[in-house]
Design brief:
290 residues, alpha/beta, Pantoate--beta-alanine Ligase, Chain: A,domain 2, Ribonucleotide Reductase Protein R1, domain 1, four-stranded antiparallel sheet, two-stranded parallel sheet, 8 strands
């Protein structure tokens, strides 16, 4: 009799344990479902905020274009950014990057042929940043359509020997991050280059009003950092015409390599960035505006 009661007690305890496990699993599943629903709602909310910020950026650029056609600078409203502001559930901020204020990597090989002026400018940019100049020929080989490497370059044969192996793109870059695949571009080199370069369609000009100091130094042989900073004017450069910019260069006793080829004073391509945090969940959106 005592043995039967002992067995019954063990069975009862097992049933309680099993029941507890089932209830716990149901609670966990319910919490997971609630978290998933919350995340989906926040994602939809974040996307709506990002679309709204994109519309605001387009309107801001349109008003700036109407107020001062043919010229863009870091003094314009679009360059000031949107400081963090409270929104239901979190914080929202935004900023825009002028995609014409950087060196266009695709300008090295426009329309299948090498551009000597752009190549010299890029070589100077590498020198200013104290980066191996051989990266220039590596990048040209990465972009051009042929499979013949330059003397210091690298085509698919060099990349196929790596682990894992891959081939050279042999086409224009679609994004700056592709640089990490080019021989010689490690994390350190990429961190130095990334703020000053971009991957735009070939033919778009460098806006001298929004170009960084290293990019300005790359435009003229022998331009010192102090001379470039004078032109940069602590981010207040605002030349109305390329002629005014060229006159400033001449006053410094310098001459533009290639003249005003590939240069301008306005921008036609912007990258709007939306930064959001909702319920502690970060969201990051980009919109390309042309």
């Amino acid at each position: 009799m005592k043995r039967s009661r002992g067995v019954a007690l063990i069975i009862a305890l097992l049933l309680v344990a099993i029941g507890t496990l089932i209830v716990t699993a149901l609670i966990d599943q319910d919490q997971l479902s609630l978290a998933r629903t919350r995340n989906q709602l926040r994602e939809q909310q974040a996307y709506a905020y990002a679309r709204g910020l994109e519309a605001w950026a387009i309107d801001l650029l349109r008003r700036d274009r109407n107020a001062e056609p043919g010229r863009d600078s870091r003094q314009d409203g679009w360059a000031q950014g949107l400081p963090p502001m409270a929104v239901p559930g979190g914080l929202l901020s935004g900023r825009m990057r002028d995609e014409n204020g950087c060196f266009n990597l695709n300008s090295l090989v426009p329309n299948g042929g090498e551009d000597a002026i752009a190549i010299r400018r890029f070589e100077r940019l590498l020198s200013v940043l104290k980066v191996d100049p051989g990266i220039g020929e590596n990048l040209i080989d990465w972009i051009d359509a042929d499979s013949t490497p330059h003397p210091r370059g690298a085509e698919s044969l060099s990349y196929l020997l790596l682990d894992p192996p891959y081939r050279a793109a042999n086409q224009p870059l679609t994004q700056v991050a592709e640089l990490r695949l080019v021989r010689g571009v490690d994390a350190r080199v990429y961190a130095l280059l990334e703020p000053h370069v971009c991957a735009r369609p070939a033919g778009s000009a460098i806006n001298v009003n929004t170009a960084s100091v290293p990019v300005l130094m790359a435009l003229a042989d022998g331009m010192s950092e102090s001379a470039a900073r004078r032109i940069y004017n602590e981010g207040h450069a605002n030349f109305a015409t390329l002629a005014a910019f060229a006159a400033e260069i001449q006053q410094l006793g310098l001459s533009l390599d290639g003249g005003d080829s590939g240069l301008g004073v306005e921008s036609t391509r912007f990258l709007a960035e939306t930064l959001l945090e909702l319920d502690g969940i970060p969201f990051h959106y980009f919109s390309l505006i042309e």
